[in-house]
Structures are given as structure tokens and as C-alpha cells.
Amino acid sequence: METSNKFKSSSNWLQPPAMISSEVRTAMSNNEITSTSNLRLPPTPRISSAVSDEIRPDLSPVHGGSLLMVQHAWPARRCSLDGETLRSRSDSFVSTANTVFRSRAGSTARSEAESGEYDDVSPSMALTPDPRHEQDFQVVDNRFAFSPGQLNKLLNPKSLAAFRMLGGLDGLASGLRADLVAGLSMDERRLDGYVTFEQATGMAVERKPEDDSEFQKQEASETAAGNDTPFADRLRIFGRNQLPDRQRKGFLELLWDAYNDKIMILLTVAAVISLSLGMYEALSGGSRVDWIEGVAICVTVLLVTVVMAANDWQKERQFAQLSKHNNDREVKVIRSGKPVMVSVFDIKVGDVLSLEPGDSPPTDGVLISGHGIRCDESSATGESDQMRKISGDEVWQRIMDGTAHKELDPFIISGSKVLEGVGTFLATSVGSYSTYGRILASTQVASEPTPLQVKLGRLANWIGLLGSGAAILLFLTLFIRFLAVLPNDRGSPASKGQDFMDILIVAVTVIVVAIPEGLPLAVTLALAFATTRMVKEHNLVRILRACETMGNATVICSDKTGTLTQNRMTVVAGTLLADEDFDQLPIDEDHSAPIPTVSEIFRRFPAAFQDLIIKSIALNSIAFEEEKKGRKELIGSKTEVALLQLASEHFGMNLTEERANATMVQLFPFDSSRKCMGVVYREPSIGYRFLVKGASELMLRAATHVATKGPGKVVTTEPLSDELRRSVSQKIDSYAQKSLRTIGMIYKDFPSWPPSRDQKTEGDPAFEGLFEDMIWIGVVGIQDPLRPEVPAAIKKCKRAGVEVKMVTGDNMATATAIAASCGMDIDGEIMEGPKFRQLSDIELDDVVPRLRVLARSSPEDKRILVEHLKRLGETVAVTGDGTNDGPALKAADVGFSMGIVGTEVAKEASSIILLDDNFKSIVTAIAWGRAVNDAVSKFLQFQITVNITAVCLTFLSAIYNSSNKSVLTAVQLLWVNLIMDTFAALALATDAPTDKILDRKPTPKSAPLFTITMWKMIIGQAIYQLAITLTLYFAGGRILGYNLHNPQKELELNTIIFNTFVWMQIFNEFNNRRLDNRLNIFEGMWKNYWFLGINCIMIGGQLMIIFVGSVAFSVTPLDVVQWAICIACAICCLPWAIVLRQIPDEHFEVVFNFFVHAAAFIFRPLMRVLIRVTKPIGKSIKAACTATKRFGTRAILKKKDGNGPAQDEEAGSWTDSKQKLPSQQIELPPITITTTN
After folding, report:
1. Is residue 273 part of a domain?
2. Is residue 1228 one of the residues assigned to a domain?
3. For residues 359 and 374, what is the distance between their CA atoms, to the nearest angstrom?
4. What counts of helices (H) and strands (E) characterise the chain?
5. Between 67 and which of 339, 466, 488, 1164 could a Cys-Cys bridge form, CB atoms 3.0 to 4.6 Å apart?
6. Where is the Cation-transporting P-type ATPase N-terminal domain (predicted)?
């Protein structure tokens, strides 16, 4: 083969190969071509040694050259079977031919290598169904030889034994009724006849290309007769390549979920009772405004549910918009022998797809033919190393020859990325049967309630129980008094009935006052405000309550690649010449002298050496530039891309110009045995220059001289002394200890080419003869660098009491080095995944708390770690960007995914998406989560104080009053209990977090909802407010000199009590801005415009009620003296709060616990009686709620069924038969599923 025939000019240096010559492939199959390792240049950069295909850009493709394709003849088969083997079973007879596989009839298999040498699973077990996916193996009316489950066994996990049992590429193609060269027929509709498993796996025989033409003609005649949906049988059996979308809820469903909350249901019951009694009062001639209370509660319930549903719906829309651009794309497929571009959703099992650098395979498959293909499967498997792919034919040959081993990999995984090389592969699994689809399906599991949800649910139960108990006690007390005076009552039956209704109204009012209807609104508003602000700080909260959960996170299980690091290999250190060091690694705090950067080092060198470094990187590389979305992107192996980026960013290299101006002579592709690659180019001042790069130890061993910084137009050199060699070797060792991948660069000059000693030798010079007496250029250390913000973020996590654990697929040395550079504590347990997954539950209990780094871990290891941490009582957050992180992200309390580089599976499974892929944003989420929890605690502290005061005041005043009426009317309580609560919830929910919020440890799940400090403020303020209001109620007339027999004076006193009570709540709201014992309650208040504005609205509302709301609110305008009395009594709660904060918590805790235990001892028997009394009522309410839920759910489902999406034309028969397809069954740990939100 002449060089000129293969490469016309150096301009073809970066051009992609056009096609593979069938003649060359045939010749290579027949061993006519012995080696292509040393080719005369200018070559294509994708040439590698020991290939089975030749790449020739001079060949004219049948499609006009606009598309890349791989063309080859039918590969020669590796075993020779006689005609008896192909004879139909219907007329077969005993044959002496060796068969390839053991058939179901029990035929004898041909001897070959034991499968244990190339697979951990024996062939007999390779296709055994997994218990969770048995349905995938059961297909009705299967016209193909294989079921989706059998095909999935190829890659779940990668199995050469399954590949062998399915007959290799020929068996797969025959069983799937596909052609490895021409692909699927565009005319295919419904298929006639069947292909059995034995027939398909028996096709691993010698077959001529003309047989394939007959096969294609037969297929065409079979399929042309059908007029149904294209590829109908393939769609019916194997499904579409439509990844299972997460079912998104409509607004009505979200509204229904928001309503299914215990507090919401309890409020609804109270609203119905209050509204009924109010309407009865109005219709019977009583109060005309009592019904407003019931309506107002209904409005509150509607407002809360709408706000919660609207927030959830908004988050769903934001997430849908975020992932929309990645849903559909076009890929190149071979059909009827021609390359066509089709949507990824239209790929079928049996399609032949092209592979090019930068592609992300949309399906699982097996490589048909390829040239130097390497894939990055880190997003799917967590394995950071490049995976070299070998064609299925070559793997089959190795299996038949007995030379197969476990490292052989012909499998293409969906969701991976092609780094280099071109080729074609056969699609074997699509949609939910593919690796990508199964991981996505495993993320769709039910979510557990958050810690705050659990605590608020318990609080709702206690409040409902205590409120009901107080109401029943009040009702019984007033009813007994009513019965006692009934014989002496001379009123009409209507008036007696009205008196009874007044008693019932007061009792119901106590329930309404006791229930903190502002609580769910406070939680919702706090979350809504926090999530809105978090979007501006690059946190998209998909699940609303994940925000508050993150505030209490105790452990973060972080992926390394793409989360702590940049997922971009970068040159971070190096030594040029013998002693010019540069270092871009993070500098320790105690490091005294700064290390120069690579740009500073490069500027010190003379022009000749600068040119040598640039050419060593630019020319000795097969990576290339490609323009994507308006910007240039380097495509190739991560190591070569890192070197090219170094030269572009720091050396001013222009890759296109360097390669266009260079005259290339010969390329030595990378060879794994010699661990290096080389290139020869013409150097005008010297002659020819041989550049080599590879494993640094081998490069140093081959070097005898070292370049120097001598002036002149030519690079000067000097002998590499033993001292210099030791110095460079020590540098290499130091880089290796930092887990850097070291690459050495050397060169050698020749006056002519080929060298004079090789001119008499035919062919190209051998690499081994040239690789001696080399000149040392330098060594560089390559690493996936840390994100710059990570060390500071981890330091903040430590300060906040949050432990960070690294879980990665990398080896232990690299993981440990990265963890140390992050600032993580590596004094604990460091373990590898294979050992971790073998631990028992008892051993896990001991290891998991001490575990710091889990290396070489699988997705299952990560999920086990997360679930065990949760079992130990930790609140777990998980970060990740890859498909393999999906199950762990979903299992965690909070899952963080990366919005830029994260896969769609990771985003679907996560609770929060980091829009800037910044680990620092996790600290922001922790701070906002704690702010949400603080907002809820602030409101609880405020609300419970109001409720205790209001219930006690209502209870005592109703018993004291002869007419059974409370001092606060129902409408006044409506303002206090509803409007004030709503405004207070919004005011206290809008405080942004401060840096000090990270100075405390996270709150454990087992911690009570109320702290001792909160109880101190609640009880202290309630005592003060009750003392003031009861003093005014019982002695106000005497103190103020009012004649209470005068209705106007009585009204004025009642107005003073009401006004004082309201103003005490306004001032107490300022007290509740702090949850600790510090005194500055105004900290940050002037920056919170929401708080200031809402308080102005509340003050304005109270002024309007006193001056213009006399009729509705049963009040009268007050004079200046009366206003002064109200404000003076109310504002004293501020200095009283200072007094309370001076009381040590531990002293108060002793007194508090004593009274709690005494009350429990006294009231526990009463509570048991009360529970027995109220239990039937509770069951009735629960039954009514259950019936209402069922009715609502059925209505929603009925509406959805009636408005289902229309079928598209192609999916007709597929949709009709979708119920026959196997469903995903996921084995999950025991979890608690709740219907509350």
C-alpha cells in the first residue's frame, strides 16, 4: 500500500475517515496485511495498531461524502461447519459435525476456553432471569429469537458469557432479523414467520455475502406485504427508545395532595361546624356576623392549599424547562444500506448506529466494527478510566480460540460518551430495557416525609387532642350550669335553645382558637420565599420540603468526579528541562514561598525551546478541535485534551496553525505494550525531529541527554547526569504520591529520514530501533482538579457540624489524595467497594460512622451507604452528576445534582439542582434550610403563645360570664387568630440567613420541635399576657373607675382589653425574631422590607378596626389616655423578654420538667378517658376523610383517563399492546409512605 494512495496531503491530518475498504478488510481477515502500526504520514489521527479495518479518506462514499460510514465485507467466521449443521431440524439426521452451542435438545458443545477465564458467570447461568425482571423474559408471540430480558443480560452487568450464549454478532443479527451491514429495512412493517433461539445461535457459521443478499430479499418480500405501522413487531416486543418519563402531576392533583394534611382536614371540620352554627344564628335572628368566621377559615384553607400547589407546580415547570433541550436529538443510523438521521426516540432494536467522537450512545449495543474506539462510561458506571472497545467479531474469535479474558469489551452502554474512534454498533436494548432506562426507572420511588413534616404531624395531633379536650371540658362545664339553671328559666323554648347554641359556639370557638391555622401557611410561605431566593443563588429546589430537610443534614455523601472535581483532566504540575518546576495545585496555608505558574516558567525559555514544547504537544496527538454551539471544543482522550489545553491557555498555541504548517512524515500510534506514542516531522534547521510522549518512567529511562535554556535558534542539550536523573525521578515519584498521572516528553533529531542505517531496509523504520539516546524535555502531572470553591465549602460544612464523605469509583490512592486536598478528615475508615458490600449489618453499624472515603464503589454501594446512614438516624444529603448516582440521590433525604454537567437521570432523581455546578451552593442550601426551620420555629413560638393566651382567656371569661360569652367575640378572635397569624407567618418567614447560622450543629431528627429556650419564652410571655388581660377583665373597672353597669363603659373596657391583647402580639412578634438568648431582636430587621411592610399593614389594620370597625368587631373608638394604657401594657413585653432571656435555660429546664411530669401524672388518667370518648369521633372523621380522598382521587383519575394523549401514528400497535410489556419491579427497602405534604 502506497502512502500517497492513503494520504493525499497534510491537509487531511484532522479529516475524519470516510469509510472502511471491504477489500482491505478482506485482505486483513486473510492475514495478507500483517501490520499497520507504522504508517507513513500524513496520516489520520485515529490510526492505531492491530486494527481490523483500514481508514481511507480517498474512497468515495455512496452517500456523497456528507456522512461518515463504516463499510466492510461480511467478516470471515472463525469455525468451519459442514452443510449438515445448517440443515433444517425437520429433515436432519445424525451428523458428525461439531456444533457451536449446546442446544435445548442436548447437542454437544465444541470444546473451547472455560468461561471462567473471561467471565464470572458460567454460560449455563448467563441468561438466567433475575427475580426482579422475570417478566422481561416472557413475551407473547415473539417473532424474534430473543426476549428483551435475554438481550439485557449482555450489559447487566457486561457479560461475555451471555454474548457467547447469544451466538455473538451473527447470532444477535440473525435473532433480531437485522443486517450488520445494511441495517434494518425501511420497508419493514410486520414480520412473517419466527426465528427460534437455536436457529439464531446456530448462525455462527461461515456465510457468504451473496447469502445476505438473498436474506435481504426474503426480508423485503416478507415485510412489503404488510401495510401496518413501521417496525410494528419490533415496537411491540422491544418497545420504543422513549425513556420512561416521570409522571408529572397536574395542578388539581397537586392541590389535592396539598389539602390532604391533618391540619387542613381539622380546619375544614372546624370551618363546617362554625359556618353551620353561624348560619343558624343568622337565620334564627341572632348575630348576623358569626358565619363570617367559618367562611374566613374556609378562605384560609383554600389560600394555603393554593399557595402550596402553585409552588409545587412552578417547580415542576422550572424543572421541565431545564431538561427540555436534552430530550430529543438526531443520530446517524444505517437503514437499507444508507445512512440516515433519525430521532433517538425512533431507534429500534436491530438498528446499526454510527459512533463518532463526542457521541453519546442512545441505546445499549454491541460493537460491529470500529477503529480505536474509547468510551468514557463514568456517568453510567462510575469508572473514570477510558474503556477500549473491541469489535464483537474479534471478541468471538478470541472466545473460540480460547484466548478471551475479562478485559475484552465489545459492549456499548447507553449514556456513555465516545472519546475517540469511529465505528458502528448493533442496538440490543432500548428505552426502559437499556442501562440508562433502568437506572432512570429505579429513581421513581415514593418519597419519605421530611423530619419537619413528621414533627408537625405530631404537633397537629396533640393540638387537636388538647383543643378538643379543652372544648369538651368547657362545654360540659357550661352545659351542667345550663341544666342547673334550666328549671328556674322562665324564657321561651327558642331562647333556651339559643342559650344552648351559645354554649356550643363558645366550645367550637375554643377549638378554632386552639388550632394554629397559620402554621401550614407559615411553613409554605417560608419554603416558597426560600426557594425563590435560592434560585437566584443557583439552587433550583424541585421538591419544596427538601429545603427545610437540608437545614438539618448531618452527612453529605459526595461523588468525586464532577462534584468535588471539575471532571476535566488538567495539567496541574510539572517539571520542564531538569529543574524548572511549576505547580497549580492548591497551596497549603503554611507554604512560605509561592511556586511560579506554568506561564511564568514558559516565558523564561528561549524561542527554540518554546517551539519544541508546543510541537511536542500539538503534533504528537490524535485529539482534534471541533466547533460546537459556536465555540471550539477539543475531542479526544482526556490526557491529550489536558495537554492541548495547557498549550492553548498558557503557551499561546494555535492547534490548527501548528498542524497546518508542519510537514508530517511518520506516526507511531499509542501502543499499550510500549506505553507511548511518537511522531516524526520535518524540522528545517535540523532535518527531521522524532517526538515521543508516554509513561514518564519509560521516557526517563530512554533519555541520555536533557535540553537546556541555552541561547540561539537551536535547542541546546547536555548529558543527563545521574544526579539530574535522580532529581527528575524524585519529582516523578512526588507527583505519583499526589495521585497525578505523569506524562514524560522526549525527542531526538535526525539529519535525514529514514535514518541512514535504515535506508537499505524496506518499509518504515521500526519504533524500537529509534527509541534510544533520547533528549529529555520534561514531565507533567495531570489530574482531575478540585473545584476552587470546594475546600472553603467543606470547611464551612465542618463548622456547621455536617460531615462530608466521599463516594467514588476511583482507586483508593486517588480518592484519598483528593479527599486530603479537599480538607476532608481522612483519619477515619477508608475502604473499597468490594470489601464494603461484603460487610454484615452489624459490621456496617461499626464501620459506617467512621467511614470517610469509599473508593471503587458501585451505585449499589452508594445506595447501601445512604440507607444505612439513614437507619442510624442521620439526615443524609447526596451529591452526584452521573447516571450511576440516580438510585442514591433518590434514596437520600436530599439529593443534589449538577445542572450543567449532570445527566437527566441525576436531575430526575434529585431534590435540588445546582444550576452552577458549584459545591459551594450546597452550603447556601444548608443556610437557607436552617433559615426555613428557624422561620417555622419563630412562628411556632409566636403562634403557641397567642393560642395559649387566647384559649385560657376565652375559657376563663366564658365560665365567669353569666351569659356564657367570652371577653373576645368570635369576630375579634377571627382577626387575632386568622389575619394576625397569616401576616405574622409571612413576616417571620422572610428573614434571610446570616453567616452565624452555620455556627451551630444541625438539629437531630429526634430533637423535639420546641427547645427549652422556646418554651421559656412561650410560657413567660403567655403568663405576662394572661396577667395583663385578666387583670383588666376582672379589675379593670375598679382600676380605671368605670361603671360597668353602663353598657358604653363596659364596651370601652372590652375594647381596651381587645386592643391591648392585639398590641401585645405585635410587640411579641419582634421578640420572636430571635430563638436564642441574645438580646438584639432588631438584627437585620431594617434589611427585611417584608417584615417592616407587613407590620405596618397589621398596625394600620388594628387602627382601622378601633376607629371604623365598631359594629362588626363590637368595639368603640378610644381616646388618647385609653390608647396610652393599651400601648404601655403591651410594650412592656419587650423588657419582659429581656428578663426571661436572663434566666439560665438549665434552671428553667428543671422547673419545667417538674411541672410537666406532675401534669402528666395528674392528667394522664383524664387523657385516657378523653381518648376513649373522642376515639369514636376520630374514627368517624377519619372514615369521612378517607371517603372524601377516594372520591377526589377517582375524579382526578377519571379526568386524566378522559383527557389522555392521542397516539402518534407510528406508536399505534405499540400503544395497543403496551400492557403486555413487562413492568419495572424495583426491590426497595422498607419505607414509610405518607399522603401528607
Report:
1. no
2. no
3. 11
4. 44, 29
5. 339
6. 204-279
Q: Are strands 703-707 and 717-719 parallel, antiparallel or unpaired?
A: antiparallel
Bridge pairing between strands 803-807 and 774-783: unpaired
* Number of folded domains that form the chain: 4
Angle of helix 251-259 relative to helix 291-323, nearest 10 degrees, comes to: 130
Element (H, E) at 374: strand 364-376
* Of residues 507, 475, 466, the one with CA closest to residue 1167: 466
Predicted pLDDT of residue 589: 46
185, 183, 104: which is closest to 145 by C-alpha? Answer: 104
Is the omega angle on the peptide bond into residue 42 within 30 degrees of 0, that is, cis?
yes
Q: Grid coordinates 415542576 are at which residue?
A: 316
1199-1206 contacts, C-beta under 8 A, 24 or more apart: 1199/252, 1200/250
Query: Angle at the Cα of 506 (from 502 to 512), degrees rounded to 5?
Result: 140
Determine the 3-state secondary structure of 450 from DSSP.
Answer: coil
Same domain, 558 and 492: no
User: What CATH number does residue 555 fall under?
Assistant: 3.40.50.1000
The pLDDT score that the predictor gives to residue 555 is 93
**CA angle, 1142 as apex, 1141 and 1148 as ends, to 5°?**
80
Rounded to whole angstroms, what are the CA distances from 449 to 305, 452, 1228?
Answer: 18, 8, 16
Residue 440 in contact with residue 886, Cβ under 8 Å?
A: yes
- Extract the C-alpha cell encoding 779: 514531565
CATH number, domain at 481?
1.20.1110.10
What is the tens place of the pLDDT at every residue in 71-108? 333 333 333 323 333 333 333 333 333 333 333 333 33
CB of 823 within 8 A of CB of 796?
Answer: no
Query: ω into residue 1117 within 30 of 0, thus cis?
Result: no
CA distance 529 to 525: 6
Give yes or no: residues 654 and 698 share one domain: yes
Element spanning 478, H or E: helix 451-485
CA distance 39 to 47: 9
| b/e per residue 875-886 (b: at least 16 CB within 10 A) | bbbbbbbbbbbb
Nearest to 1173 by CA among 697, 636, 539, 473: 473
Residue 1121 has a pLDDT of 92
Q: pLDDT at position 1195, please?
A: 60
Residue count of the chain, please give it: 1237
Report the distance separating Cα 1174 and Cα 1179, nearest Å. 9
How confident is the model over 517-529, as a mean pLDDT? 69
What DSSP letter does each residue of 652-682 carry, written as one string?
---HHHHHHH--EEEEEEEETTTTEEEEEEE
Residue 306's Cβ-count burial label (10 Å; 0-12, 13-18, 19+) is middle
Q: Which three cell numbers stand for residue 245?
A: 418519563
Neighbours of 40 (CB within 10 A): 20
> Do 1101 and 963 belong together in one domain?
yes
Which residue type sits at 1211? Answer: A
Whether residue 156 has pLDDT greater than 80 = no
Say yes or no: 981 and 1084 in one domain.
yes
On whether residue 697 sits in a domain, the answer given is yes
Range with lowest mean pLDDT among 21-35, 456-470, 504-518: 21-35
- Residues 1052-1099 pLDDT 10s: 999 999 999 999 999 999 998 888 888 888 888 888 888 898 889 889
Instruction: Give, in degrees to the nearest 5, the angle at Cα 606 between 600 and 611.
Output: 95
Q: Do 674 and 795 belong together in one domain? A: no
**778 with 903, same domain?**
no
1033 falls within a domain: yes
Domain boundary among 443, 474, 506: 443
Q: What's the pLDDT at 381?
A: 67
Residue numbers annotated as active site: 559
- Residue 1085 has a pLDDT of 84
User: Average pLDDT in the 954-962 region?
Assistant: 82
Q: The domain containing residue 964 runs over which residues?
A: 457-529+940-991+1008-1143
Residues 350, 421 share a domain: yes
Percent of the chain surpassing pLDDT 90: 18
CA distance 1099 to 983: 11
